Amino acid sequence: MRGPHNIWRLIRTGATFERTGAMKVALDAVNAPARVRFAARVLGWPFAWLGYKGDPALPPVTRAITALGPAYVKFGQILSTRPDVVGVELANQLTMLQDRLPPFPTETAIATIESALGDPVDVLFCEFSDPVAAASIAQVHRARRADNGREVAVKVLRPGIEGAFRRDIDAFHFAASMIERLSPATRRLRPRDVISHFESVVTGELDLRLEAASASEFAENTAGDAGMEVPKPHWHLSARRVLSTDWAEGVPMGDVAALRAAGHDLPQLGANVLQLFLRHALRDGYFHADMHQGNLKVAADGDIIIYDFGIMGEIDEYTRRVYAEILMGFIQRDYERVARVHFEAGYVPRDRDMLEFARALRAVGEPIFGADASRISMANLLAYLFEVTERFGMATRTELILLQRTMVVVEGVARSLDPQINMWEVARPVVESYIRDSLGPRAAARDMMRIAQLMGRFAPLLPDFLDQRMPELLRAPPATRVEDTGRRGDLLRGMVAGAVIAVLAMALGLVLA
Known about the structure:
It is a single chain. The protein is an alpha+beta fold. It is 62% helix and 9% strand. The protein has 23 helices and 10 strands. Helix 14 runs antiparallel to helix 19 (398-417), helix 14 (266-284) packs parallel to helix 20 (423-439) and helix 18 (378-391) runs antiparallel to helix 19. The radius of gyration is 27 Å and the shape is globular. The chain crosses the membrane at residues 491-512.
């Protein structure tokens, strides 16, 4: 599939980028080498007349991407989460990329629903509207369930979208391979890995059952959170190509004038958005990774409604603790602590100078703390932090990049509601609460209990393991036996230590229960 026939698609793409003026902007953003620039010009300039014109009111890159269709729009949205690849400036532009695609006919949506759910639409719904929103992959209809009258949002995949995406992704893979061949220097940006990441994300979004599962898990995690709502999926009205959820009634977060007219406390809303995101990322390790204004509404009672769970972020518990300690170190302006956390986590090679690294971190943090509230930016700090850590040999960590990118988006939403918001003061209680719960005595006791439980699960295997290994150690030649005796001693010491940990864990558990 990834053969020369894709050249035509690349020519059309290059022609559109050239015609809309996006070519130079995109190449400058990724600092493309001369060979790649030359190849792009060859594919674009002579054929510019073949390119799509796009909407002249849009910035060049978003104009080109929107004109090229759904796969390119979705690719642009996902690239907005990778400032390490496209640069911060272009990533910010892509964040604002809107799905400016025409809806498909309601009759087609109805046919898709009836095929997927096995019943006529008028049996499933007593009301069913024309499209109320059209995106790159699907469109949304407002409906009312026939059995109980509840209002729902019905999301339906675009017809033929799977085949269209497969063709375009095939061309993307071909282009990435060609770029790496033309210029080995571009391999530092890992273009093929970027396309593979895009493919995995889109594959998940093309099965709406997976989005329903994400919405369900997110709703369970946040069930006790005050000040927010999550539209829950209706499983019997959902399938691979159809997703039904509660209807989210509220004022769009992007309509500041309407929010103000409705009497909502805008500074409080801004603080709530930021704190909710941090709480989900730190406490749950599972967060909405596309929290722009288009996916947020405000209910009449002031609750923030979060919806559209196509892109989610996940962070393991250890990384969450490291991230929280880094944030707390900056909040307290304890740069040696931040440096030590980086070294202990293995983010920075141990052969680097920790104190020199701490001074570099001070150069990152102090200018931000010296600014007035309207210029204090956690997103900028994280961006500068990654620049410094890269200089000290830190490898790219995709999960932290997604976290940083989402922080940029959330911070933008918060500032649109309250330009004077002090990000550090708002974030501090959430970070402190997480550290208190995750790094204090109770957290240590929970960790030890988990170790005890793990040892308990494997304890039945230990007798058989020792029965098999001990005779081998005793029969081994003397030289080998000496080595194995040392290993056996390590094993026995480990078992003793494990037993001690288990006893301490149970004791602490009883004390703290």
